[in-house]
Amino acid sequence: MTPSYLQTLFETCKVQFDSELNMSAHIAKTTQTCFFHIRRLRQIRRLLGRDVTAKLVSAFVISRLDYGNAVLARLPQSTIAPLQRALNAAARLVLRLRSREHVTAALIDLHWLPVAARIEYKLCTLVYQSVTGNAPTYITDMLQPVSDLDRPTQLRSASKGDLAVPRTRLKLGERAFRVAAPRLCNELPPDIRKSSTLATFKKHLKAFLFRKHYGLVLEQ
User: Fold this and answer.
1) Where are the domains of the chain?
2) For labelling, which of 54, 74, 148, 190 has a CA lying 20 to 30 Å from the CA of 113?
3) pTM for the full model?
């Protein structure tokens, strides 16, 4: 790899915050980087098979879309739309589709969750790791089981193993991890939340999100 290419890789491995915390700078930079890699891969696509192309796309494009995406929680669909366009372009590259061809079927064929679902996947995974004692303290300290609260009216939530969702007066506060993450996890079926291993949790979580966003059962 050339020094300039290595510099490009380094510069994209960070989350960029802006003054309004709408993550527009981060989304713009991530999208730009994803399309940069897609263009480079397109130049050699005819020499690669589907499986090899998918692996390269996963390494150079999807890894960028997923990096730090927990900070994108509860952003409007219009705001994260550029990231979805990058994912769509990556799917078209793998399956050699034209730019005007509908891409949802391609995403389903590749078993790729849409960007909004990928954000939910990251948040729920972080919560599961926290609850099972496999997350850093700074994450674990932001989560509290309802059963630890002295609120008799929440006995039903406590019995379900729900996490407390702090109240917030600001719209921005709803995007905070301590609010968005437990709210999402509380919506998961109990059998998913009680998965015995992280691998099992991820498998069932992906199937759940696949049904939620595509309305289809994920073929394992």
Assistant:
1) 3-112, 119-214
2) 190
3) 0.86
